[in-house]
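Today's session is about reading a structure prediction critically. Students often jump straight to the picture, but the first step is always the sequence itself: look for stretches that repeat, for charged clusters, for runs of hydrophobic residues. Only then move on to the predicted structure, which in these notes is written as discrete structure tokens rather than atom positions. Here is the chain we will use throughout the hour.
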Amino acid sequence: MRGTLTSPQPLHEPTPPAAVPDTAAGGLVRLPARRLWRHRYAYLFVAPFFILFAIFFLYPIGYSFWLSFRDWSLVGPARNVGLQNYRDLLHDQIFWQSMTNAGLLFLIYVPAMTFLALVLAVLLNSRYVRLQGVFRTIIFLPYVMSGTVAAAFTFQLLLDQNAGYANRLLHFIGVSPVPWLTDIWWSRVSVGLLVLWGWLGYNMLIMLAGLQAIPPELSEAARVDGAGPVRIFFKITVPLLRPVLVFAVTLSIIGTFSLFTEPFLLTQGGPANATTTPVVQIWNNTFSYLRVGYSAAMSYVFLAIIVVLALAQYFLVSRRDPYYEKRGR
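Below is the predicted structure for this chain, in token form.
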């Protein structure tokens, strides 16, 4: 009828609630149990990961944090010392020297490694180089062997001051022998060479992945406009590859301060603690001096320093990059 008022009909039916609580029948209690039972097989398959994650990751983190406030020598009860381990760490000259050593190692090999990795990536990304897969495999192969005892032993044979092949070659061209493993600065250079040899291929693959993500039309358009290979490299390739370079350098910062295998096997942290890194010092305090609580406190201070360095690198470099600004970062 014309004069009858009707309520407006909704455009679509309202969505019914997911579950109606049945307080009388105890529905609020049984509903989570029903959901768990309905997805029991999914939870069963993902449960091993969370169990192993809790046992081998969360528990060691919590236990080591608890140990950082204790004095324990791996035997007997742990004695509560409060913040004494952290106070002692502020005056530990060897630990802060290890941080300085890591910074010097970073300056010794990271710039050279980044440059060589970029050059090799550009060469192996060029269509003029044949057998690219073979060369990539050969360059990446040392990464698989860099952390082994055989690699460190080989470098010891190469860099021995009296009978090493490196000094034999220098003697052949009329250069006096170099104390690769017994001098403070040359031992740092030796560790840098071992790390450079082992990680060059890994960084090259990172650069290569970044190069293959750059559209080739940009270089072709610049080439049509008369730009040469060098100008294309510095004006197009490097700016577009900057996020990848920042990522590689960030990994190098974390990796350099976390070095253990290379200095421990090649120089044992010597001479005069010149190649002792923070992780080597943490290992020494744990297993050589049996200061487990102190080494736990040292590991947490080391973690805080690494986080600060990574954040500083991000805000000083990445946040100023137009690549990130265009994406609203």
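Discussion point for the tutorial: Residues 93-124 form the longest helix (32 residues).
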